[in-house]
Amino acid sequence: AAVTSFIRSHHLRPQFHYLTGSQHDLQHVWRAYNVAAVRPGSADVDHTLYTLLVDPSGVGRVLFDSRATPKAIAHDVDQLLS
């Protein structure tokens, strides 16, 4: 319920999958993918603004920054799937 509320209140896309868990559990994932997560004095967590495209074997293949367009992402996904 908390995740659903967060997604709605922040106008996030519901078709994406959001990683949730305890801070202890998430720290392992953050380290593995070089994600910096900080809590700047509020309940919200601020984190790295990158999207990592991971292939089916779990290997990071493409790193998109916040300026990546849907067209560019779709192109790269298509290339990895073909």
Features:
single chain; 82 residues; alpha+beta; two-stranded antiparallel ribbon; two-stranded antiparallel sheet; 3 helices; 4 strands; 37% helix
Count of helix runs:
3
Query: How many β-strand stretches?
Result: 4
Q: How far from one another are the termini?
A: 37 Å
Strand content: 15-25%
Indicate the radius of gyration in whole angstroms. Answer: 14 Å
Shape: globular
How helical, in percent, are the residues?
25-40%
Mean pLDDT: 81
Largest sheet data: 2 strands, antiparallel
Q: How are the strands of the largest sheet arranged?
A: 1-2
**What structural class should be given to the helix and strand makeup?**
alpha+beta
Compressed to H and E, one letter per element, the order equals: HHEEEEH
Overall description:
The protein has about 80 residues and is of the alpha+beta class. About 35% of the residues lie in helices and about 15% in strands. The chain has a two-stranded antiparallel ribbon. A two-stranded antiparallel sheet has the order 3-4.
What is the compact description of this entry?
The chain is α+β, with helices and mostly antiparallel strands and 82 residues long. Helices cover 37% and strands 16% of the residues.
List the helices and strands and how they pair.
Layout: H1 2-9, H2 23-32, E1 37-38, E2 46-47, E3 51-54, E4 60-64, H3 70-81
